[in-house]
């Protein structure tokens, strides 16, 4: 008999979507959020006659559940979740729940960096080829909501480690693992192995008929191959060496070595730049090939792709200086990739809420490429102290317009002004989108002056 009392913890996009799917499948649904629900989600719940509370979790109601779906933002170690585990109540993620009610083929993409671009590009390649495909996970509309109300044959899912922590039978036919670098370690008892294990959950239910696409240059990923059985068919990606079955970067070309459909694509023709995006593009191509997309459709899709905002997004060229918004770069690894995307001198705008960053990872690139560092942050001391003797000039501010104005004063034709913060945004902004939008507005003010 199906568990009937379903409690959803968290009333954001994924939580409300899970509640809607639960109700459509006959569950007695109750949604609980410790914060205040967004008005549009509150209205949806009322309209659909789904019971909910906000501003608290009523423990007695939650603990009476037969099944709990929790927001990825709620750690497993909070007392309420611990109590549920002790009681033996299943606690799962929205992606696990939604996957139980769809026969669609799933392409699931994870990694510490690059997963949003890869997910969007993979979705674009399938959509461009005429596939009936949905976009979900960490991006777009709720996976569960789409399963409840739409009928897609394929889903491309951006999946975080937090979502993978609470899967049971989630089974993607195509799994992509782009990289594993230290991130969110506070959620994993500061154990990098725990975080790595979470990422590898993406393949735990795959069969020999499925595909596992991975970055073959990652020592962390390759190191795990000796520790665990890899059941699905492996497709590697490399920037440094030829891959017999997979893809590699060959003298400026994306070289796809596939038994069925090998091809080459001049990477310089694509609208996305930098070695990290070469990896993302090869992953998307292999994923699209794995579900049968034809080569000519892949080639046209690659050329027409438009990336999401805040990811190496060119904002403007003013007096020969290019302004680039990379506000999504909230860790050092992302800044490493961003700096590697440019051969021109860079004026770097960085800073925010430091997550235990190790700036030695980018020190050599900063020495080579950065002609000036602008620290946009309330707590600026760590960046200032690390880079003051490394960069030719350094400026500190808490105002994004002031930061952009200072960058303009340093810039000469051919330079790049790059917002790539390496930090979270919450000291001065609502989120990374807000930071990126305010940076773009500040650049546009330069155009007017």
Automatic annotation (TrEMBL):
PANTHER family noted in UniProt: UDP-N-ACETYLMURAMOYLALANINE--D-GLUTAMATE LIGASE
Top-level division of the source organism's lineage: Bacteria
One Gene Ontology cellular component annotation held by this UniProt entry: cytoplasm
Enzyme Commission (EC) number: 6.3.2.9
Primary location group: cytoplasm
Pathway: Cell wall biogenesis; peptidoglycan biosynthesis
Keywords: ATP-binding, Cell cycle, Cell division, Cell shape, Cell wall biogenesis/degradation, Cytoplasm, Ligase, Nucleotide-binding, Peptidoglycan synthesis
Protein name (record): UDP-N-acetylmuramoylalanine--D-glutamate ligase
Family: Belongs to the MurCDEF family.
Domain called Mur ligase C-terminal: residue spans: 310-423
Positions contributing to ATP binding: 111-117
Its job: Cell wall formation. Catalyzes the addition of glutamate to the nucleotide precursor UDP-N-acetylmuramoyl-L-alanine (UMA).
Gene Ontology biological process terms in this record: cell division; cell wall organization; peptidoglycan biosynthetic process; regulation of cell shape
InterPro entries (alphabetical): Mur-like_cat_sf, Mur_ligase_C, Mur_ligase_C_dom_sf, Mur_ligase_cen, MurD
One Pfam family in the UniProt entry: Mur_ligase_C
GO terms for MF: ATP binding; UDP-N-acetylmuramoylalanine-D-glutamate ligase activity
Protein species of origin: Dyadobacter psychrotolerans
Subcellular location field: Cytoplasm
Domain Mur ligase central: 109-288
Class of enzymatic activity (EC top level): ligase
């Amino acid at each position: 008999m199906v568990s009937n009392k379903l409690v959803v913890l968290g009333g954001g996009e994924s939580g409300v979507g899970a509640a809607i799917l639960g109700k459509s499948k006959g569950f007695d649904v109750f949604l609980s959020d410790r914060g205040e629900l967004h008005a549009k989600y509150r209205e949806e719940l009322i309209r659909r006659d789904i019971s909910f509370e906000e501003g608290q979790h009523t423990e007695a109601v939650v603990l009476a559940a037969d099944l709990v779906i929790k927001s990825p933002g709620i750690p497993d170690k909070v007392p309420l979740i611990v109590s549920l585990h002790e009681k033996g109540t299943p606690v799962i993620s929205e992606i696990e729940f939604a996957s139980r009610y769809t026969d669609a083929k799933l392409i699931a993409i994870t990694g510490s960096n690059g997963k949003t671009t890869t997910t969007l590009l993979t979705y674009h390649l399938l959509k461009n080829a005429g596939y009936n495909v949905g976009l979900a996970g960490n991006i777009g509309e709720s996976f569960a909501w789409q399963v409840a109300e739409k009928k897609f044959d394929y889903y491309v899912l951006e999946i975080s480690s937090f979502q993978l922590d609470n899967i049971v039978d989630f089974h993607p036919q195509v799994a992509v693992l782009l990289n594993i670098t230290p991130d969110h370690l506070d959620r994993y008892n500061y154990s990098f192995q725990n975080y790595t294990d979470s990422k590898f959950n993406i393949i735990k239910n795959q069969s020999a008929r499925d595909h596992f696409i991975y970055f073959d240059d990652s020592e962390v990923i390759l190191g795990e191959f000796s520790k665990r059985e890899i059941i699905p068919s492996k497709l590697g990606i490399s920037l440094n060496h030829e891959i017999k079955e997979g893809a590699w970067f060959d003298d400026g070309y994306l070289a796809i070595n596939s038994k069925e459909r090998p091809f080459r694509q001049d990477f310089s023709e694509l609208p996305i730049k930098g070695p990290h995006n070469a990896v993302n593009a090869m992953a998307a191509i292999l994923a699209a090939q794995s579900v049968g997309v034809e080569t000519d459709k892949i080639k046209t899709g690659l050329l027409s792709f438009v990336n999401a905002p805040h990811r190496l997004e060119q904002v403007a060229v003013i007096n020969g200086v290019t302004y680039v918004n990379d506000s999504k770069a909230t860790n050092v690894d992302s800044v490493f990739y961003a700096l590697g995307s440019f051969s021109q001198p860079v004026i770097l705008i960085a800073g925010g809420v430091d997550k235990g960053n190790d700036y030695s990872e980018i020190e050599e690139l900063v020495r080579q490429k950065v002609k000036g560092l602008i620290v946009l942050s309330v707590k600026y001391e760590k960046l200032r102290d690390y880079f003051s003797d490394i960069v030719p000039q350094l400026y500190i501010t808490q105002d994004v317009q002031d930061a952009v104005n200072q960058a303009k004063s340093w810039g000469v034709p051919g330079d790049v002004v790059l917002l790539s913060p390496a930090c979270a945004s919450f000291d001065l902004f609502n989120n990374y989108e807000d930071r990126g939008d305010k940076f773009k507005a500040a650049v546009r003010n330069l155009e007017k002056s």
